[in-house]
Amino acid sequence: MWDSPPPEILTSVLIRLPIKSIITCTSVSKTWKSIIQNSSFISIHLHHSKNKHPLLLFRLPPSEHRVSDKELYALYCDNNSNNNPDLYEHTRFDFPLSGTFRVVGTCNGLVCFTVKFTDRFFFWNPLVRKLVILPTPSVGLRTLRFYNPSIGFGFDSKTDDYKVVRIVSASESESSKVPKVEVYSLATAQWRVVTAVPPTGTAFADKCDPHAFVNGALHCVASKNNIDNEILNFILVFDLGDEVFREIAMPKPLDNPENLVGVSVSAYRNSLALIQGVSIHCVDIWVMKRYAFASSWTKMFSILADQGGFLPRPIGFKKTGEVLLKMHEGQFVSRDLETQQIKDLRTTGDKCTFVDSYVESLVLLNKPN
């Protein structure tokens, strides 16, 4: 019988293997399985994966030849090369449950899903084929006529924990009620109501828009009344570590309530970007050059409709900061916000939707299905 190498040497070798090979190695011996499923190894592997070529996660349209009603997802490799800017498919996989789901967010290889207008939530790591069904939240959608919460998902680096945040607002007829804020922790596998609440009278631009996870906090577009009883737009921030709310001011042209419709916030490198649908013929993109400094908001450019009236649609940002645009007939291009350089990614998908940047990870490997 051969001797297993020392754990530190084994770790340095294993983290360089493809995930499928790592999972296969769990069958070599109990020692190897114990090392691979250890939370420390999973964290080391994640850190190593973040330095690899980035991946992009797309939701694919169902094929006419597929009889399954399960959603289909694909990872595309992004080599980010001027000589070869193509995206190419890395792998694809079915979501293991049937039905139609909404992506709450992605983080460190995990995808968080919910079923719209229900209390059902799931964590999914497609590469390790693990699905965790979350328990039912304690604040139900029908509790005291509460409805349609604003939901975000991210990672708390202070406690090495993944969290889902639900801000459940009252119906308009009961708008005097204070919203309930509930946090799910993967580490404890429990929901709990927290004491922090958004500013009084906070309303959300679109509760179905994903929250932007940046610098350990979730961000969403909201509005409230100021001291002069005027409606003011702002970005509501929830810190996942301290579990408190903060506010970030909008660019001055966007703080008017008439401009709230069609505004969404996205992660842009280590800061934020705003995408504003000015009209059916124009979209503006703003970037916060210095995170949390409202004075650093800068309008980078406007996207205008072509002569045929088609308006390219911003669908997200790559890790490099380039904005992904969906063009006429479904082709994808990227545009550098600083240089304005445009790359044809030579990938099409008329009904294909971009989800987010994605990092390969082993998160959930040590969790039961």
UniProtKB/TrEMBL annotation:
Q: Name one Pfam family in it.
A: FBA_1
Q: Where is the F-box domain?
A: 1-44
Q: Which PROSITE patterns does UniProt cross-reference here? A: FBOX
Q: Gene3D superfamilies this protein is in?
A: 1.20.1280.50
Under NCBIfam families, the record lists:
F_box_assoc_1
User: Which protein, by its recorded name, is this?
Assistant: F-box domain-containing protein
